[in-house]
User: Fold these one by one.
Assistant:
Number 1:
Amino acid sequence: MGSEAGSGADKLRKLEKVSLDTLIEAIERSWGAKTSFDPQNWWPSNAAYKQSAVTALVVNDFFGGNILRTIATYQNGSRVSHYYNELPDKNIVDLTRIQFPEGTKFSDPEDKSRGHIMLNPLTAERYNILKERVELRLENSGKERARLYFAHPAADRKELREREIDMECRLGIELLNPFYDVKCSDIIELDPGIRKPCQGINDPNKIVMRDLEAIKSCEGLLAVIPKDRPMVGASMEIFYNSFVLGRDTYLIIEDEGLFGHPWLVKNSVARFKNADEFMGWWEEKVHKSYVEMQNR
């Protein structure tokens, strides 16, 4: 029983016609804890974790075809449902199979309708979040966008990944995350708790130089300074971007007691109390630039 492209497809197809590769990139950059079936155990280093149903729905929105379900059986015997797509040309698109470890076995697939998948209200809610994020990314696709290095403490990396995704989608900017957007093999051990931050690091020089190169590849830096949380690395990244490179640094300072700190004032062009304040300021900044260009 093949499923037709979803009811949201009409709106989606009003966007510029996108290729499958462009859609895949937008989806993968939009996965977060809010779109995962198991947000507590989701980590950005395994971003596809428990995202199969909502991902299959979004792919179906754009390309139609069938949504297939299989039962994945882990080596320990536990079983979970797994969804993926068969396009009208019979090509298979399975963006979330990468979440499964080697040795996982899959049953023969069966067709599942959109209506069946959307019976679960939590799945419908997660789908709407993912769909909105993907729409926003595609609307901004092809536009010139700012690229900012995203500095923050390692301990807050999971929570701030959600905020990062929201800022990218709403503002059309690219945030380069030092934990997940550059080659960072140690995060594979850090996320599941095999080791703690700053422990068991074999080559600290390599990590520092990698991050400095990443900062140099960006136009500026956005940093989050949370309450009661050490941020040695991020502090040095702020100084390097602002004082050494002379590039714009934007700070989200959640500790009001630090808002007027002379080192933070000296090494930033703008400071904000939360992400919403930064986003509102950035939108106004972009709007003013657009109006100025139109009046030239």
Number 2:
Amino acid sequence: MRLIIALAAYSFIALKIGWVGLLNIFTNLSISLSSQNLFWFGFAIMLMPLVWALEAYKWRFALSEYVSISFWKSWRSVWYGVVAGQLTPNRIGEPIGRLALIDSEVRGKAGFVAVWCSFTQQVATILFGLFSIFWWLVVNDYAVLPSGVPLWFVFFTILCWVSLMIMGIVKVHWIAQWFEKFGWVKRILHGEKLIIDFSASTFFIVQIISILRYIVFSTQYVILLKLFGVSASLADLYAVVGLTYLFSSFIPTFSASEVGVKAGFAIWFASMISDNAVGVTAASLFLWVLNLAIPALIAAWFPWRK
């Protein structure tokens, strides 16, 4: 299924931009790197460490009730999670990868904290995705869905997804205790007790950080779309990005196909305001390299220090 989705995504992009368009991506990049755009390219690149600094702080803050780690160790742990995430569908291995650089005495709790943090990020994605749907349907009066796809089905799916995320966030202590009943989990924990509970203030702060992080990396995407020649208002571009992240989060992908799926959705939604499929693909690819590929290449060497 993942292979079919990946092939479908890349086929859709190939049909949209063609082989000539694929070659034009590099031409588009060289043209975009003109002197007047260098500042904005530099700004988009400088937002990358901010994206991960927010995630590292969120991870460190959420862990603080169980273990104290430095900001630098938190950052390294988060980036090594990116490495593991690249090898698993929808980056579900990312929380597990983070545990490699966490003390073994609290890895059980840290694992649930990592999943809990990813749920809060997903809530931010859904929140801005719903804002984007509202923008296209109510403000711009555009049809954002293919013909034949009922709107009620989309909202029902999103509602179920939100319910699962909220349940995972609110009932994390119950889920942890349920897992602790399994014998194989007890053997992995080596006597560690999964007593997990977050205060309302902790949840609020972590959720705010997730929202801020979403705003930063979506701003990167908007800047790159602008630089690669996708002409539209900022509000429309943010709405395109919001729909892209929302719908691509429902699709099972591996790292190699993730950028293709996101680019496919971005091309689909951006077609409402622009026919520049080459620019959308270039922006999606550049963002993936910047925010995921480079951190993974660097962090793959972190465990070799021990």
